[in-house]
Specification:
The chain is mainly alpha-helical. The protein has seven helices and four strands. Helix 6 packs antiparallel against helix 7.
Length: 212
């Protein structure tokens, strides 16, 4: 006579847990920094620290240098794509991964058409800015395609590295924008902190909960 069956083994089930909490915290930091908190004073006529929307309007009238172009073109889109990338990593969602890739490709395409291939509409003469923009966009497109083709575990690691890279790019841009660190306020560092939090979330991935 066969022995009675024992209790069913408990299986490991993934839940968002700590990683999702980090993403939400990073999102809150990004929103506060990009909407409310002061960044830095810009110019002799602006002695008080300006918030990101004020800096964006100022650079829209005439962006100069790496910091100005970063604020005008990349600050808000990269923050949104960074949060979406972290969510796709933490939730292990193929749909969010595809949405992130599609939005990234569309954004890079617009960037190349607007700032990279402008000379084709007139005289065939490329400025350093246009060549640099087209090169960076093409390299970023290769990275996006590579990330989309990776397995889930590799995707999380690559996503974390991308988010760490975005934190470095942001810090370099604000240092260039303010010509140093002496006058930078807490808001200027907020997006980098948000990227670091979401990078940690991507490396962490979903938690594990033992259950039936």
């Amino acid at each position: 006579m066969a022995p009675p069956p024992g209790p069913a083994p408990r299986r490991s089930r993934r839940v968002p847990g700590f990683g999702l909490a980090l993403v939400l915290l990073g999102l809150a930091v990004q929103v506060l920094s990009l909407v409310v908190l002061p960044w830095a004073p810009l110019g002799a006529n602006q002695p008080a620290p300006m918030s990101m929307p004020e800096i964006w309007r100022l650079t829209a009238d005439g962006a100069h240098g790496f910091g100005g172009w970063y604020v005008l073109l990349f600050s808000y889109p990269l923050a949104a794509l960074g949060i979406l990338l972290a969510l796709a990593s933490v939730l292990e969602s193929a749909a969010l991964k595809a949405i992130w890739g599609g939005l990234a490709v569309i954004g890079l395409g617009i960037l190349i058409l607007r700032y990279g291939f402008g000379p084709f509409a007139g005289e065939l003469h490329f400025t350093t800015q246009e060549v640099t923009t087209a090169t960076i966009a093409a390299a970023a497109l290769i990275v996006v395609v590579f990330v989309l083709r990776t397995a889930v575990s590799t995707f999380r690691r690559v996503a974390g590295l991308i988010l760490l890279g975005l934190a470095g790019v942001h810090l370099g841009a604000v240092f260039d924008l303010a010509n140093g660190v002496d006058q930078l306020s807490i808001g200027a560092y907020g997006p980098a902190i948000g990227y670091l939090l979401t990078a940690l979330a991507a490396f962490t991935g979903p938690g594990r909960l033992l259950g039936l």
